[in-house]
Amino acid sequence: MVVDEMLRLLNQNPVYRSRIVYHAESKPGPAEYGTLDHPLIPSIASYLDQKKIRLYAHQCEAINLISSGKNAIITTPTASGKLLGFNVPIFEQLAFDKEMRALYPAKALSNDQLATHEQMAHFTGIDARPAIYDGATAQLKRAAIREHSRIIISNPHELHQILSWHAKWSPFFSNLQFIVIDEAHRYRGVLGSHIAFLIRRLLRICRYYGSTPRFILSTATIANPVEFAARLTGQQFEHFKKDGSPHGKKHFVLYNPFFDGIGK
Fold it and tell me: If 0-12 CB within 10 Å is exposed, 13-18 middle and 19+ buried, where does residue 63 land?
């Protein structure tokens, strides 16, 4: 393995070996699967079957929490399948409510998110009409996206621009039920305060149009996820962090390049 070879080289070289401050190894872990509080609708269950997907414990917990009407923040690792845990309850609600809308205002990997939504909409037959709406969106497409897209992927800067023109977005804001913020830990410090005010502006406009959207946040591991989510959005959250996805052996190495005052 590449990691084992790298560690061997570090330990064999006395120059590098003296700079290794700490080394710990975690054991590999098998997948942990969960159960849902209610059966999925046939179209989504069929989609998961076709993809040979069995839901991990944290995905089931996400679906159960979101389906019960709660705001959720998840702190499981990258590539643990968080997006699927978000998308399943959102697509279920899209199937039940033909006017429902969802907003993904944090444009992290937006093209990947769009491809995932399009694929899920195609397999399930649910009329989601996902689209990206940002500064690069062609002017000719904007009106159609505002009026007809039920999942919109954007970014905070674009959201700041469109809130002043909320009358054009009334069909969207009046039916907005989910706001999904991926990589939420990026919104800290001064930037975080700006995003917090932006979210409060968005919620005031939603209330004006009669909607009360729920929040779904994902973030890297942080010490105070519930407090962080509450400060960012002004809402109360349920937190879940146990990762049910399988994982291999991991090495944690702290390396001090200035062990003798000379960086190497």
Answer: buried
